[in-house]
């Protein structure tokens, strides 16, 4: 299944494979057998993968049906400022709340990621 191949490449940080798969027409919003898209499982610290997925039309606002998290929630929680910035530049919604009613900036604060918190507050 093509979606499984692309999500695995994104999750493991295989930038070259992600690029090749996308250039060969695999849908960046295809759902794998676990119900996840590549941008939801990508290696959050790999901005090149985020950029490739977004350039090929990945939805930065895809919501995880079980948690209500979006990719920007995940990147903020893990403290990946560059990825947060990349998502914001590609129209990620910073005002969406997860199932716990938390915003991405709340997750950055909760996990002690001051730079990400400051950046997200600067967008308000």
From TrEMBL:
One of its GO terms (biological process) is regulation of G1/S transition of mitotic cell cycle. PROSITE patterns: ANK_REP_REGION, ANK_REPEAT. GO terms for cellular component: cytoplasm; nucleus. ANK repeats lie at residues 1-33, 67-99. GO terms for molecular function: cyclin-dependent protein serine/threonine kinase inhibitor activity; protein kinase binding. It comes from the Eukaryota. Keywords: ANK repeat, Repeat. It holds the Pfam family Ank. PANTHER family: ANK_REP_REGION DOMAIN-CONTAINING PROTEIN, CYCLIN-DEPENDENT KINASE 4 INHIBITOR B. This is Cyclin-dependent kinase 4 inhibitor B-like. The lineage of its organism: Eukaryota, Metazoa, Chordata, Craniata, Vertebrata.
């Amino acid at each position: 299944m093509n979606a499984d191949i692309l999500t695995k490449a994104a999750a493991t940080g295989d930038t070259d494979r992600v690029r090749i798969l996308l250039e060969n027409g695999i849908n960046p919003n295809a759902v794998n057998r676990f119900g996840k898209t590549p941008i939801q499982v990508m290696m959050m610290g790999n901005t090149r993968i985020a950029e490739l997925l977004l350039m090929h039309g990945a939805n930065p606002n895809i919501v995880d049906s079980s948690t209500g998290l979006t990719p920007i929630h995940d990147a903020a929680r893990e403290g990946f400022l560059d990825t947060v910035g990349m998502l914001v530049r590609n129209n990620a919604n910073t005002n969406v709340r997860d199932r716990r009613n938390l915003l991405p900036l709340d997750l950055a604060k909760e996990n002690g990621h001051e730079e990400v918190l400051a950046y997200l507050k600067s967008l308000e």
